[in-house]
Amino acid sequence: MAYRFKKQIFGFLDLIRFSKIVDIRKAKLAEGSAAPLPEDYRVNATARILHPGNRKAILTEVITENADTKTYVFDLGTQMLFRAGQYVMLSAKVGDGYVARPYAVSSSPYAALREGKVAVTVKKAGFFSNWLFDNAEVGGEFAINGPSGYFHYESLKDRPLVVGVAGGSGITPFYSMAQAIAEGSEDFRLVLFYGARTKADLVFKEKLDALVSDKFKVVYVLSDEEKAEFEHGFVTAELIKKYVNE
């Protein structure tokens, strides 16, 4: 009986509070500041820098890496912040419509921050990539959206030593990481196993070799030919253990 009476009392008090809710809200609004709201909030300004949407991108350079791989360098005209390992969405007008495809950024974060330049490395395969090979010319106008993706180093969850395995054009995010390590924008050690059919199929070999340091090491693995200073076969657990003791 006492419990039932208690519930009735609390229910009655709730009704009293509800009847006064309009007056309470009006009083709270009257106590508020009369200062006008800012035209822009700092968090919104930061969000526009980090996620600006589509950017106009002018193609400034085309670099032939090997028979079926090219690097395209774009000038954004403004800074871009990204983490090594992320990707951008590249789009262009093709015929009467627009075509877009994600590509990992192969250039360094500093180049985007200092010069507003971003590079993507493309293997000739697929509709848009083939179109780039056959039609993209210096001075052409494109659009870049991003950066996006979480394939980057995160000190809170990743160990100081990272083992990377790449094949073919999959080298692009790791090449960006190697540059970031050399420039100091990333602080971790990277041991990279890079597999290809032949030496001629390797992309960025000379550039990767130039970045080797106590924080970056690269092991080349060729499946279809045997050469001195190259591992032969495929990337296996045994091969990784040969070079990584931790």
From TrEMBL:
Its cofactor is:
FAD
- Key words of the record: 2Fe-2S, FAD, Flavoprotein, Iron, Iron-sulfur, Metal-binding, Oxidoreductase
Pfam families of this UniProt entry? FAD_binding_6 (PF00970), NAD_binding_1 (PF00175)
Q: Which InterPro entries match?
A: Cbr1-like_FAD-bd_dom, FAD-bd_FR_type, Flavoprot_Pyr_Nucl_cyt_Rdtase, FNR_nucleotide-bd, MRET, OxRdtase_FAD/NAD-bd, Riboflavin_synthase-like_b-brl
Known PROSITE patterns for this protein? Answer: FAD_FR (PS51384)
* Lineage top rank: taxon: Bacteria
Residue intervals of the FAD-binding FR-type domain:
52-154
| GO MF, any single term | flavin adenine dinucleotide binding
Q: In this entry, which stretches build a coiled coil?
A: none
Protein name listed in UniProt = FAD-binding FR-type domain-containing protein
Natural source organism = Candidatus Stercoripulliclostridium pullicola
